[in-house]
């Protein structure tokens, strides 16, 4: 059964954040809030956890398109190919925020991402995921929680999320109601920004 932690962005409790990070380090799966929708996440360096995350989403790991959650742009050079100044300026002016930026994958991506030519990078404007990444010391693999309901698309109530994923994840972080609009996905691999999915962010 999943443990539910109430952690709010205005005053996140250090001891609870530390427990979440410990769970991530031990290969656990978490559900966490962001500046858009609630999402599933795990440590990108733990292949077993990545496989479990793919299983929950019903895809094979090598086909999974998990973005990575960073707390700032310092991880960019670790996981992406070098980018030009214009791209860096664009990222800097929209991060943190409700965007997922697709960039060319670098050589240092963990083994679970091997073979991927691109990677989605996201820095949510929300203190909880930012602090988790900071404490963990590396990004979190992430995928939005979709809803089977065609009308809703995303579940916003953390209590309902905890009920549904109770036996699939280790921790659910309840930060109050989430948004029901996902991030805007912007492809930056061609040199010109191309919006792949219109979401919450305005480019």
UniProtKB/TrEMBL annotation:
<protein>
    <submittedName>
        <fullName>Threonylcarbamoyl-AMP synthase</fullName>
    </submittedName>
</protein>
<dbReference type="InterPro" id="IPR017945">
    <property type="entry name" value="DHBP_synth_RibB-like_a/b_dom"/>
</dbReference>
<dbReference type="InterPro" id="IPR006070">
    <property type="entry name" value="Sua5-like_dom"/>
</dbReference>
<dbReference type="GO" id="GO:0003725">
    <property type="term" value="F:double-stranded RNA binding"/>
</dbReference>
<feature type="domain" description="YrdC-like">
    <location>
        <begin position="14"/>
        <end position="201"/>
    </location>
</feature>
<dbReference type="InterPro" id="IPR052532">
    <property type="entry name" value="SUA5_domain"/>
</dbReference>
<dbReference type="Pfam" id="PF01300">
    <property type="entry name" value="Sua5_yciO_yrdC"/>
</dbReference>
